[in-house]
């Protein structure tokens, strides 16, 4: 991290921290989460590769905060879906609390990595790497050609394994 | 957690992954993949990385994955996403791994993937067979014949030769007289069965008709040979009053993913000879032979439970 970057972020923090927390609180309706997400927003800035040119610092902060907020909502959404899915698993096979947390982290990462891919591409990938279906089975299941299956799988794999 | 691979290597690795999972992946392509792996340490790391991520993915029950990830995003989120600008702050993290463990079996001289067996004739005429998910190195020179079991299980029929035959596992080196031997690598110990001939470990012999474990202090638990255990070379899984849980453990070696049973049926006993080439059929037969039902959450996650009603 460059010192210019950390100086910029420090400046943003001092001048706009309470404004940002307020901004987040209005959207969340919860002071605790707002404080957490404000921290997350600054952390995210610190991980940036370049120092942003700041003409409109608050607009910039809001843009980053929206992304953080969006991840937060997605996390909640996934957590709900995850809990619902777990409820379907017979009790004797249910993972213990620790496993549940690990699995959830895996799901979150997977979701983030596959985010933005078309639903069919995602589905093809999950069928292949999670369910272990063969490529021709996937082609049948999704009603697409084998060549398309391979293209979809490659696309999702580059994302999932290499974040490309 | 950066997956620090060049884009070109990443693309090649993905290409090989998709090819190797294709229905028409053959021995020729297998060799090409092997050559690619050996060409560069970076290739091996990228490949190991993919395997590790896959292992993690397979540890998650698929219904949960589908239900969780396929859940359609709420309209509110969609709108929010559209309104957002993507910033260049997202680091390439993801399911990357912290450390790259070596790929034991992948770079061995010979290997047999999960669910397959392989038979080879060595230079001296000895016959080597590799069981499911197994790998071995063969190093013959003018002084000795050295076989190394890297992982899994092998059976070797040793012929006479002026050079001694040495067989190495993670726990020690055996000297084999001509005969037939079965060696299996467990985690933390090895197990040798002697069908004919004789094996010695640090000067102590194990004779035809015996089997024993060894870790680092000579033979342990020398016992009469359980001949059934070697039936895999004929493509059979033979059980004689075997606990169902043990049977499934054994069968699980021939399949990807997780195969287990509930406690209520773990102690049921099963006998019979089962053809290994079709483990799905064995599972179907279980339902006929025992009061159990086989529940498939996915191909990688199968459990055997007590049949209801």
Automatic annotation (TrEMBL), chain A:
Pfam families the record matches: Sigma70_r2, Sigma70_r4_2
Protein name: Putative RNA polymerase sigma factor FecI
Domain of life: Bacteria
Family indicated by similarity: Belongs to the sigma-70 factor family. ECF subfamily.
Taxonomic placement: Bacteria, Pseudomonadati, Pseudomonadota, Gammaproteobacteria, Pseudomonadales
InterPro entries given in the database record: RNA_pol_sigma-70-like (IPR039425), RNA_pol_sigma-70_dom (IPR014284), RNA_pol_sigma70_r2 (IPR007627), RNA_pol_sigma70_r4_t2 (IPR013249), RNA_pol_sigma_r2 (IPR013325), RNA_pol_sigma_r3/r4-like (IPR013324), WH-like_DNA-bd_sf (IPR036388)
Keyword Magnesium: no
Species the sequence originates in: Pseudomonas fluorescens
Gene Ontology molecular function, alphabetical: DNA binding; sigma factor activity
Domain called RNA polymerase sigma-70 region: residue spans: 12-77
From TrEMBL, chain B:
FecR protein domain segment(s): 109-199
Name of protein: Protein FecR
Coiled-coil regions listed in the entry: none
Superkingdom of origin organism: Bacteria
GO MF annotation list: sigma factor antagonist activity
The species this protein was found in: Pseudomonas fluorescens
InterPro entries: FecR (IPR006860), FecR_N (IPR032623), Ferrdict_sens_TM (IPR012373)
Domain named FecR N-terminal: residues: 11-53
Xref: Pfam families: DUF4880, FecR
């Amino acid at each position: 991290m460059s010192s210019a970057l950390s100086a910029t972020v420090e400046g943003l923090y001092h001048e706009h921290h309470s404004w940002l927390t307020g901004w987040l609180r209005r959207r969340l309706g919860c002071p605790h989460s707002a404080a957490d997400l404000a921290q997350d927003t600054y952390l995210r800035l610190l991980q940036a590769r370049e120092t942003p040119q700041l003409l409109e610092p608050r607009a910039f902060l809001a843009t980053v905060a929206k992304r953080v907020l969006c991840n937060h909502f997605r996390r909640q959404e996934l957590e709900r879906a995850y809990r619902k899915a777990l409820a379907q698993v017979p009790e004797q096979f249910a993972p213990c609390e620790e496993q549940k947390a690990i699995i959830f982290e895996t799901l979150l990462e997977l979701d983030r990595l596959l985010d933005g891919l078309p639903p069919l591409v995602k589905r093809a990938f999950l069928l292949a790497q999670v369910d272990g279906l063969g490529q021709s089975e996937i082609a049948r299941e999704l009603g697409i050609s084998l060549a398309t299956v391979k293209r979809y799988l490659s696309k999702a794999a580059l994302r999932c394994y290499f974040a490309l | 957690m950066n997956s620090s691979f060049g884009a070109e290597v990443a693309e090649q690795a993905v290409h090989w992954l998709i090819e190797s999972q294709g229905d028409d992946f053959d021995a020729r392509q297998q060799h090409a993949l092997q050559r690619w792996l050996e060409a560069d340490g970076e290739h091996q790391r990228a490949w190991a990385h993919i395997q590790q991520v896959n292992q993690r993915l397979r540890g998650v029950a698929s219904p949960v994955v589908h239900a969780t990830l396929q859940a359609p995003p709420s309209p509110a989120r969609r709108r929010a996403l559209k309104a957002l600008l993507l910033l260049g702050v997202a680091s390439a993290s993801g399911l990357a791994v912290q450390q790259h463990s070596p790929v034991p079996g992948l770079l061995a001289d010979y290997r047999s993937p999960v669910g397959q067996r392989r038979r080879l004739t060595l230079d001296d005429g000895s016959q080597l067979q590799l069981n499911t998910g197994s790998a071995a190195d063969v190093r013959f020179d003018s002084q000795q014949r050295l076989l190394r079991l890297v992982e899994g299980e092998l059976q070797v029929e040793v012929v006479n030769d002026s050079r001694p035959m040495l067989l190495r596992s993670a726990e020690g080196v055996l000297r084999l007289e001509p005969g037939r031997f079965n060696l299996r690598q467990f985690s933390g110990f090895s197990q040798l069965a002697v069908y004919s001939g004789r094996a010695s470990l640090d000067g102590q012999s194990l004779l035809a008709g015996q089997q024993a474990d060894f870790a680092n202090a000579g033979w342990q638990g020398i016992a009469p040979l359980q001949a059934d255990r070697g039936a895999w070379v004929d493509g059979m899984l033979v059980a004689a009053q075997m606990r169902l849980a043990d049977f499934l453990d054994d069968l699980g070696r021939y399949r990807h993913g997780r195969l287990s049973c509930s406690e209520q049926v773990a102690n049921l006993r099963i006998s019979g000879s089962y053809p290994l080439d079709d483990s799905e059929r064995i599972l179907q037969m279980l339902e006929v032979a025992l009061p159990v039902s086989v529940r498939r959450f996915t191909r990688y996650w199968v459990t055997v439970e007590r049949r209801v009603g």
